[in-house]
Amino acid sequence: MVGRIFSLIAWLALGACSSLANIRYVPTTAEVSFAEAGNAPWARSFAQIEGLVERDSGNEARVRLLVENRSDATLQVVPDQFALLDGRLERFGEPVANVAEGEGWSVAPKESVLVNLAFPFPPRGVDLDSLTFTWALRRGVETLTASAVFDRARGRVYRDPFDDPFHRGYYGGMGLYDPWWGPRYGVWGGYYRGWS
Predict the structure, then answer these.
(1) By CB neighbour count within 10 A (0-12 exposed, 13-18 middle, 19+ buried), where does 172 fall?
(2) I need a surface site. Which of 30, 92, 94, 181 has the fewest CB within 10 A?
(3) pLDDT digit string (tens) for 105-131?
């Protein structure tokens, strides 16, 4: 009897841990640089699987993409080239894109653009052991495609707040409170969590 109760509790606990909200991917942030051989990159992209969301209308995968233009020419993010593939290379649905207010698909020289994407799950079953995200940038008449592969994390995933390109900005000064670590005395500084 005790064994059955223990089995039931374990089954319920494992069921609760398998919800989509608990699934994480590594790397937490994938970086792709665009450069000609031997030259400094003219653009950098950072991609993240922000999370998997369960909705009544259907589940979705949320992806974030930050594109930094390091060149002197305007770049174009190509919205019809966004794709997300599961572990069996099944394609997710067409994404709903949200570009930060005041920003479009063009990336001015020395500027960046942040894109949030929501991909509906494919109609058939989905293999969440890995996800492959692809996107493209256009520079003049040239279109370059990039991709990043994210593997499902087993165990706990730690995001280093000092190594997160989506939350930039420096704070510092004297005070009695550090937003991450709680009350402290003396001089403090670091990067704040928020949009810059």
Answers:
(1) exposed
(2) 181
(3) 899 999 999 999 999 998 888 999 999
